[in-house]
Structures are given as C-alpha cells and as structure tokens.
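Exercise: predict the fold of this chain.
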Amino acid sequence: MAIAKAERLMNLALCLLGTRRPLSKRELRTSIEAYLEAGTDDSFNRMFERDKDDLRELGLVIETVENLDGDTGYLARRDSNRLPPITLDAEEAAALGLAAKVWQQARLAGAASGALQKLRAAGMPETEDAHEVHSALEPRIPVHEAAFEPLMLACRDRRPVTFDYRKSNSARPEQRQVEPWTLECWRGHWYLAGWDRERGAERVFRLSRITGKVRSRAGAFTAEVPDVVTVRETVESWAGETATRTARIRLRAGAGYPLRSRAMTVRERGDGWDELEIPYGHGLDAWLVEFGPDVVVEEPADLRADVVDRLRAVAKD
C-alpha cells in the first residue's frame, strides 16, 4: 500500500511538473493509472485531494488556476519548485535548527523536521549537538486553533477562503470571504490579515473567533497583496494599544489580569472592586466587552456608551 501510494504521488508530481498549462482533474485521471482504477468519481476526488495535500505538505508548490470556461486546473511550475544553492554558515544553520524547535503543533513539528533534512541533504552544514542541546528556557509558539493550518496553507498558495467568524459584539458567527495574506502571533493569540471581499477592505481576524471549517475556494486574488503587511500595528490600533486618552474602569477583585497588566494606576475600593486607569484607544470597547460583568466603565462617557451598545447587541442575538 505504501509503495503504491508513493508511486501514485510521484506520477502526480511528474505530471504537474511536466506540463506547461494547467491540467484539469479529468486530464490527470486519464493520465495516471492509479486514478483510472478508482471506482467512482467520488473516490477519485477524495484520492486526488489527499494526494494534492500530501504533495503540498512535502513542499511542492501546486498552483490552482481557473480558465476562461470556469474549469479548474493544476500545475507545478519548475521555477517555483527549484531550490537555489545552499550557502548557509554554521550560525545560520543553528538558527534554522532553533526555529524548527519552536513549533509545538505535531504536524508543523514534522514539517519543520522534514525541511531541515532536505536542507542538510542539499548541503546545509550540521551543527554540533544539534539534537542534544537542552536549555532551561526553550522558545515555543503554541497553536491551538484548528483554523491555523488551512489558513497557513492558503496564505502560502494564495488561495481564497471562506469561514464563519464571530465578532466580539455578536453571539452568532457570520460567513466571511477572505483573500489571506499572512498570519502573525501577538500577545499569545494568532491573527490573520487579508482582503475581505464583501467589505472591499483589509481586515484582521483573530483565529480563536473562527468557527467551523476553513474552506478553500478556486480562483485568483482580486486585490493586490501589499509588500509589507503590518498585522501587529493593525491589531494594536484596534486593541487600543495606540492610545491617545485614558479611561477609568471598575474591575472585580481577582479578575481581568490582562487589564491589570496594562493599568497605569490601580486602587482598591474595598467593596470587592478595584478602580483602574488604563490607556484608551480605538477598539478598547470591544476588548472590555470580553470581560463581561467583571468590568464597569466609569469614564469617559463615550466609551461607556460603546460598551453598553455592544453588550445590548450580544444580548439581542
């Protein structure tokens, strides 16, 4: 079974690398013997999608192209799948080895390990005790959201996606059609930056608010991808990090530690509540709503009104 699958993957890779134009599923099915033996269209489609995902995980860049008739085709351009000469020194190799240890998620850990093996086979120098060096502190990037991996692949392959997204002021998710640009981790949370087709503007989405599956869509991007995507700056502005004013809030004792870490002053009131003065910028109301009944805004009045409006919207849903 393993040999048969390896042969099938090799044949598919050769077909995609050997063509000058995108090949449709129908053409690939008639060109590869293992696909001809598939009993039904459904079984072939499942087999092809698994094989395509496996090749992408192995590092093959497969493009999805839609022709004028609306048919979807696939190809792997040689210039996109050719590795340049490896000219890494020992320090650069050590940095790559450290980066490979950062990922905690199982599939990413395997991909990182496989990438290192390919680089070493291409001439990357070995580092001393590459697998034996241990430290009391080791870098880790936690990835708990199921949406991370499909979005990472969609960013890499430039494929539009759809997903259900629940905003902070709504109890029900709504579908978004997005052209994903990049992912970035900030303050322990993962964010996606991309082009929201329905709103016709750049948007940043927090992965923990994506519900259900992320679905890929055929077709090219409709908006130009910027050279530099400033995810962190965008998230900071929407989270109130770029503050121009201050707000005074009541916070239940023993709650809201993220707010306490940002507080400029904290005063115990003695009635089970503390009074905090925190920086106030755009988007602070959305963040305060997440703490529910543990937070009461004292001033300014416009911030208090925005928080109340958001809570009413959630209660109405």
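Check your answer against the key: Residues 128-137 have pLDDT under 50 and may be disordered.
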